[in-house]
Amino acid sequence: MTDAQRRVHDEIVAGPRGRMVGPLRAVIHNPDLARDWSRLGAQLRYETSLGNRFSELAIIVTARHWASEVEWAIHVGLALDAGLPLALIEAIAAGEAPHFENERDAIVYEYCRQILLHCRVDSAAYAAVRTHWGDVGVVELTALIGYYSMVAMTLNAHEIPAPSDLPTAPMIDGCGRSALPPATNAREHVA
What is the pLDDT of residues 127-166, one digit of tens each? Predict the structure, then answer.
C-alpha cells in the first residue's frame, strides 16, 4: 500500500467496521474515494433514523436484487441479530414472496422492491415510509438503497470474496428483476 492507502486503511479498521471488508478492498486503490465511501457507508449504516432492523432489511433486499453473495453474507447475520425472522430472510434469498408479520418490515420491503425494480416508488409506498420515519427517513432509506446498490455492483464487478469467517449463499437467478416479488401481504400495509 501507498502511505495514503495505509492511512485510509488504518482509519477504516479503527472505525465501527473493525476491518477492511467488502468493496473497500477494491476502492482502496483510490484512497480519497475509499475514505469518503467509508464515511458515507458508516453514516448510512450506523447513524440513520431507521434503526438496525429496517436498515438491515433494506440492505439484504438490495443484496438480493443485485445477486451480491458477499453483501448477503456480510449482512444476513446482522439482519438476524437485528430481529428479522429467519423465514423472512430465507424467502428473500430464494426470490419467493415474503410474508410479513411486522407492518413496518412490509413497508420497507415494498419501498425497496419498487425503487429497485421500477426506478421509482408509487405515492402509497412513499407515504407509508414518510408516515413512520418522516421526510428524513424517506431520504435515508433511498440513500441506503442507492449506497448498497453501489456496494453490490462493486463487489460483483471486482469479484471480491466474502470474508472467510462468513458463510456464503449463492443467489439464485443471478441479478434478475423477478427476484423481488410482491409480498403476500405488503399491499394491505402500504395502501
Answer: 999 999 999 999 999 999 999 999 999 998 998 877 777 7
Burial of 144-176, coded b for 16+ CB within 10 Å and e otherwise, reads bbebbbbbbebbbeeebebeeebeeeebeeeee
Q: What is the DSSP string of 131-143?
A: HHHHHHHHHHHHH
Q: Give the model confidence (pLDDT) of 62-77 as tens digits.
A: 999 998 988 998 899 9
pTM value is 0.87
Inter-residue contact 150 to 65 (CB < 8 Å): no
Residue 123 makes CB contacts below 8 A (sequence gap 6+) with none
CA atoms within 13 A on the CB side of 55: 22
The 10 Å CB-count burial string (b at 16+, else e) for 59-87 is bbbbbbbbbbbbbbbbbbeebeebebbee
